[in-house]
Amino acid sequence: MLNIGPYSFHSRLMLGTGKYPDFDIQKQAVDVSGTEILTFSVRRMNIFEPSQPNFLEKIEVEKFKLLPNTAGASTAEEAVRIAKLAKASGLCDMIKVEVIGDAKTLLPDPVETLKATEELLAEGFIVLPYTSDDVLLAKRLQDLGVHAIMPGASPIGSGQGIINPLNLSFIIEQATVPVIVDAGIGTPSDAAIAMEMGADGVLLNTAVSGAKDPVKMAQAMKLGIEAGRLGYEAGRIPKKRYATASSPTEGLSTV
Amino acid sequence: MKLHINGENVEVPSSISSVTELLAHFELQDKVVIVELNHDILQKENHAQTNVSDGDRIEIVHFVGGG
């Protein structure tokens, strides 16, 4: 089980809801992924188009925990406002703090992320900050009392996979709260590696929504995460420099 | 009555007095929407007893797809 704040989840996959080809494919992808946590963004509504469909209306909302993000915020103040807007929906009390510091790399602003996190914790939110793979920043966030840490594997939407496995392993080793690898996952093996390293979960979006077949990729990610987790729990063998025979060396029949 | 909604000047009937009525006017009563009135974020249960008046600055937001 994955425990975040007061909530427990069977699935270790958190799925983003952006950029799917259409709602039908998206719904199928969500279903086969087995996810119990869906992320959303908060945006202005087009009030003159009330009939515009919304993905929330396509799913049984009560079956999922909603994890709104503060994407679009570049300061702590903006992030806190978006978080409060999301909570006022009455649908959620978890928030993914996402304070972007740079438009090209979409890397998080560490100082503003820390400030927003501190304020939202004081307001009683279940806080999951999206952070870089900086080990000390992860520790500082943890010391504030976050409910999970979400280090990026690589830049958002880049599909580069885990580019700094050493830092990620340090973050996981020191963690006293769940570590969710967020952003940059491209393939099921990326997700599996994160889980093999001991991450508690993976959050991804583009890897599924942007795949040629998002439904199939959703299933692949589910299996990748499950395989990686099982491998982690099973405990891998140590790496050795030279071969070790798996077949017996004794009793060899010779001619 | 003139309101400033989502950054635009919008004229609405002056018979509208509450946030609930404003949402109904735009046929948003069954939607998941969050309303901010003059920088105050409103809880859903307070929509009915919160009044709107001429010149108010209103943000109406909702959840969209995102990662």
UniProtKB/TrEMBL annotation, chain A:
Enzyme type, top EC level: transferase
Subcellular location: Cytoplasm
Domain Thiazole synthase ThiG: 4-248
A biological process term (GO) from this entry: thiamine diphosphate biosynthetic process
Keywords: Cytoplasm, Schiff base, Thiamine biosynthesis, Transferase
Location, primary (coarse class): cytoplasm
Binding site for 1-deoxy-D-xylulose 5-phosphate: 157, 183-184, 205-206
GO-annotated molecular function: thiazole synthase activity
Cellular component terms (Gene Ontology): cytoplasm
Reactions catalysed: [ThiS sulfur-carrier protein]-C-terminal-Gly-aminoethanethioate + 2-iminoacetate + 1-deoxy-D-xylulose 5-phosphate = [ThiS sulfur-carrier protein]-C-terminal Gly-Gly + 2-[(2R,5Z)-2-carboxy-4-methylthiazol-5(2H)-ylidene]ethyl phosphate + 2 H2O + H(+)
Transmembrane segments: none
EC assignment: 2.8.1.10
Pathway(s) annotated for this protein in UniProt: Cofactor biosynthesis; thiamine diphosphate biosynthesis
Top-rank taxon, per record: Bacteria
Catalytic residues as annotated in Swiss-Prot or TrEMBL: 96
InterPro entries recorded: Aldolase_TIM, Thiazole_synthase_ThiG, ThiG
Pfam families: ThiG
Family: Belongs to the ThiG family.
Assembly, per entry: Homotetramer. Forms heterodimers with either ThiH or ThiS.
Functional note: Catalyzes the rearrangement of 1-deoxy-D-xylulose 5-phosphate (DXP) to produce the thiazole phosphate moiety of thiamine. Sulfur is provided by the thiocarboxylate moiety of the carrier protein ThiS. In vitro, sulfur can be provided by H(2)S.
Official protein name in the record: Thiazole synthase
Originating organism: Chengkuizengella marina
Automatic annotation (TrEMBL), chain B:
UniProt xrefs under InterPro entries: Beta-grasp_dom_sf (IPR012675), Mopterin_synth/thiamin_S_b (IPR016155), Thi_S (IPR010035), ThiS/MoaD-like (IPR003749)
Ranges in coiled-coil conformation: none
Protein name per its UniProtKB record: Thiamine biosynthesis protein ThiS
Native organism: Chengkuizengella marina
Gene name for this UniProt entry: thiS
